[in-house]
Amino acid sequence: xxxxxxxTCTTATISLVFGIxxxxxxxxxxxxxxxxxxxxxxxxxxxxxxxxxxxGLATVGLVLGYLHLLAVFLFVxxxxxxxxxxxxxxxxxxxxxxxxx
Length: 101
Known about the structure:
The chain is mainly α. The protein has a domain at 7-73. The chain has helices at 10-47, 55-100, and strands spanning 7-8, 52-53. Strands 1-2 form a two-stranded parallel sheet. Strand 1 (7-8), helix 1 (10-47) and strand 2 (52-53) form a beta-alpha-beta unit. Helix 1 (10-47) crosses helix 2 (55-100). The longest helix has 46 residues, at 55-100. It is rod-shaped and about 80 Å long.
């Protein structure tokens, strides 16, 4: 009994490639493409009734994309907290220096 070979979903492959590229320099654009293509691929695979393969590729692309966006968000948040804290300390230092004279 031979089963026909299932074709790998191209969109799933694109999702995985851009998920990897998002960590190698394509940053936010790569992550967004990975997420969009990953969701599209999973829908295509579900609707294909077993004709398409690649759900694992799409899932890994989604995970890499979402993790990268989370990392970028946390990095930007930390920058705002750090520089906001520095600006507050500078302003507070100038305020104290103003009243000490």
